[in-house]
Amino acid sequence: MKEYKVIEGISITELEQQINEYLKKNWKLQGGVSITYNRGTGRHEMFYVQAIVK
Question: Which residues belong to any copy of the DUF1737 domain (predicted)?
Answer without folding.
Answer: 1-54
